[in-house]
Amino acid sequence: MRSPKVAWRYAYLSALRAQDQKTLRSFARALKQNGGCVRETGRALGIPEQTLWSVARDVPAVRRLISEGGIGRRGVMRYRLKATK
Fold first, then answer.
1. pLDDT tier at 37 (50, 70, 90 boundaries)?
2. d(Cα 7, Cα 11) in Å, to the nearest integer?
3. Whole-model pTM?
4. How many CB atoms lie within 10 A of CB 66?
């Protein structure tokens, strides 16, 4: 039997993969609260960063949220450029 925390994580990831609107809004809110950093968002949600990247690879809606609101892997340079302007 899974612990409640692990069960919640599986349910949350399943809802993200199913592109549930409520869960997508929750993920977008968590991403925004953590400054767009996927690593910090994962920590806040209790989900490993690599798992979030694999979900983003498989689910276009999550990929879009990360690319629009998140720093992401490639977006760090864009973020730094904006900060210097």
1. confident
2. 6
3. 0.77
4. 23
